[in-house]
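Hi support team,

I submitted a single chain yesterday and got back a structure, but I'm not sure I'm reading the C-alpha cell output correctly. Could someone confirm the output below corresponds to the sequence I sent? I've pasted both exactly as they appear in my results page.

Thanks,
R.
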Amino acid sequence: MIVLFPAAFAALWYFVSTVLSHMGGWHRLAQRFRAVRPPAGRRFWMQSMVLGSVSYNGCLTMHASKEGLHLAVWLPFRIAHPPLFLPWSEFRNAILRRSLWVKWIELDIGEPPVAKLRLPLKVLQGREHLIGLEG
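Hi R., thanks for writing in. Yes, this is the structure output for that exact sequence:
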C-alpha cells in the first residue's frame, strides 16, 4: 500500500490539474496563446486570477510588457498549464470591478472570446488604454 501511494498521488495530481485547465479555459488559451519566448516586462509574483470558473489564488507569476501579458503557473501546479502570452490587442470588453479592498479588471480574451478572466488592476496599471479601459 505504501508503495502505491506516490503513484496514486501523482496520478490524482495530474488528473486534477488537467481537469482545472479544461474547466477554466487555460487549455483553450494555450492552443492560441502559448508563450514561445521567455517573459519580459515588470514581474508580479504570487498573483491571483480567475479564469472562467477556476480561481488561481496566489500561484501565478505575471509579466506585463509593452506587447502583452505573460502568465505562468508555478511549477508544482503547471501540469496542463503551459505559460501563456496574451497580446494587449486581444483584450476585449474590459470592466473595472471592486472586491473588498482590491480592484480587478474583468475582460474577454480574443474575438470571438476564447476565455473570460479577472485580473488584479495593479498588473494592468498604466495600460488601461491598451485594453479599452480609460483611467
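A quick pointer for reading it: The mean pLDDT is 93. Let us know if anything else looks off.

Best,
Support desk
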